[in-house]
Amino acid sequence: MEREKLISGNGNPSYGEGATSFADDDDLLDISTDTDGSVSFLGGLSTRRRRSVNGTENGSDSYEGGTAPDQYEDFHTIDWARDMQRYRKEHKAVSRRSSRSIWGRLKGSFYAVSAWVVVLLVGIFAGAFAGIIDIGATWLSDIKLGVCKDAFWLNWEQCCWVQNNTQFGNEDDIQCLTWFQWYELFGLQDPQDWRAYLVSYLMFVGAALLMSALAVLLVLAFAPYACGSGIPEIKTILSGFIMRGFFGKWTLLIKSITMILVVGAGLSLGKEGPLVHVACCCGNLFAHLIPKYGKNEAKKREMLSAASAAGVSVAFGAPIGGVLFSLEEISYYFPLKTLWRSFFCAMIAAFVLQAINPFGNDHAVKFYVEYNTPWYFFEIVPFILLGIFGGLYGVVFNRLNLKWCQLRITSKLGKYPITEVLLVALATALLSYPNPYSRLNTSQLIAALFRECGPQDAIGFCDYNRTYTRTDQHWYPSAEAQPGLIAAMWQLPLAMILQGILTVFTFGLKVPAGLFIPTMAVGAIGGRLMGIAMEQLAIEHPDLLIFTGCFDSGKCITPGLYAMVGAAATLGGVTRMTISLVVIMFELTGGLTYIVPLMIACMVSKWVADAFGRDGIYDGHIHLNGYPFLDGKQEFMRTTLAYDVMSPRRTDPPLLTITMDTSTVEELENLTTETRFNTYPVIVSKDSQRLVGVVYRKELIHALKQARKNQTGIVSQSKVYFTRKVPKFQVPGIPQHLSLLSILDGSPVTITDQTPMSTVVDMFKKLGIRTCLVTHNGRLLGIISKKDVLRHIAELDHQDPGSTFFH
């Protein structure tokens, strides 16, 4: 055929002239700058005259770029391979310019260190936001119970210790003369008076409702993305999804404010997950200041990975755990340089939070433990039991929460978010206040459960028959239970059950809601109960074989250790975290001695939970919301082929393509108007179906608009060429032609129709591609997108293939 003459005859294995190489790297660099719309670092587009794209000087019209549009639209996926190629070309251009002048060398130096500048700023602001949120949440939590009359801005601890007149007693636990409970402000003095109890109860419930209402109104009015934990969305975005506004300025501001409100309201949620979202908002804002990251979505995600590490660092005071959390749970692409930047960012954030000292204890968190008593080999059995408990709790919680969230989506309940938040807040306050342990702020409860009981602890489960004027090396600090501890043995289980049930309904509300702290609270209560039971067993039966030599060091059982192990087990069962969780727990508590018990509980918890399903709570919410997340940790074990998945199928209309030299401007404009595809294959001809390359929707639309606007002679019937071979002379009566070779991607990812889908899935995971073309003997057959892969996996897993919403 005549079309075959267009195939290069120079011996190169290319399908068409669109695949031939350019004269030198400079030409390629200039064309890529126009094509991708990227702006060189700290400079605009090159102002020198570019050589004509078609290689001639005949003056024929060709697209020269201009102001490029945004590369990706909202709710679309990015092409990692293209973005990284753009970055390499930009890096080469900067390196070339840096050798030409001192100013270019300065630009090149700043280009090299810009990543460290971004992570430094992210660490500073993430630590500052976390410190402010911690201080505000602690104050609002105490406001529900009373107020510091002389200085209302102080929380309970600051009020009592600053005034230096705190008294200790047995009857009313701890007396503070400067802190007034609400009933005292109403002239009631006797805490046993039913009127005093009623006033305190009503103030507790009223404050919780007011804070919750204000939080949900702010979220719905100003920043809808500020609700929830944010971690499922962050995982999806870091895998290459675009969600405009999720890391915006309003989201950062509203989430920070409402986080203080909902934690202060006492809802069964935590601020740790939302703090990761806050840190990523900071990362996104500062990344936009540097074009290297602001204009390249793939590079921007490296900064977001570092920011997520800083978020966990300030949430738990665990910088190393934050880096491992980002690596294990959050990030999709995590090169070695991102590891070092994440470490630096987490370190700076932890340093800033430590300098703020929001809790006044010289630690970044409340849960730091001071004891290092040894653990014994026989305790492995209760640690394993706690791991089993954590795994089973994770399975039950995940299923119940996902079912409730599914009901919220599919029923009318989702139409009334304010009512739902107020009802959950009302139920939480009404049911929490009567129990002294559920009445406590959840972080304070966990801190008390982790601690070892001492003379300063007047909480009920520390009520032992002890004499602190002497030290009995045989029994101290273990002792027989007193009424307060006995009462705690039924109050703590009620608090644990209430915490678990309320968290099921709370996680997913239209307010900032993390689940780390409530999940840890459930496990800590369960662990403390087991620790108390083991402690009392050792006291009552010290002659049992398992306790031989146990009391030689003066302490046999440490209930606080069991609380730590239980908290790690439940958190591991819910999230399926392992390595990062162990590191977070020992950084969180300072319990370096207890790494092995924590490892045992986390592994057992994950094994038990994985026996019922491998998805953690975050992966479950990703699937529930239909986010396009292709999990790189799961293997594809099916035997299907690319031909089974590609579009079009046998019953579908033929694939829409563009010929490289016969299409007109009007035809291409109609094609982009009538279809919503993001990629259009370019072929030699309809007869041969031999592939030349691909063009992308946004670039094609932009190029046609710019050609109409800026180039004379371009009309609807102008032919468009995607090849270097164009007519050299203008024929009278024929409209001026347009060359769009500069927007042609001549090296798309291609596979054959017999390629196993396991290989195709690995390509999408490891290369981060957006689409790949399917050929047979060089002829174009179809195309496979990321959506096609996800739908195919859903079909094989007997799920709804239409639940994924993205392009």
TrEMBL record:
Q: What is the lineage of its organism?
A: Eukaryota, Metazoa, Echinodermata, Eleutherozoa, Asterozoa
Keyword hit for Transmembrane: yes
Query: Mind telling me which PROSITE patterns this protein's record contains?
Result: CBS
The CBS domain is annotated at 646-710, 743-801
Identify this protein by name.
Chloride channel protein
The record's annotation in PANTHER family points to: CHLORIDE CHANNEL PROTEIN
Give the chief site where it resides: membrane
Compartments, record wording: Endosome membrane; Membrane
Where would you find the membrane-spanning parts of this chain?
A: 110-133, 201-225, 246-267, 303-327, 339-356, 376-396, 416-433, 485-508, 515-534, 579-604
Keyword entries, A-Z = CBS domain, Chloride, Ion transport, Membrane, Transmembrane, Transmembrane helix, Transport
GO MF term list: voltage-gated chloride channel activity
Location of the region described as Disordered in the Swiss-Prot/TrEMBL record: 1-21, 50-70
Do you know which SMART domains this protein is assigned to? CBS (SM00116)
Q: Name one GO cellular component term.
A: endosome membrane
Q: Which CDD domains match?
A: CBS_pair_voltage-gated_CLC_euk_bac, ClC_3_like
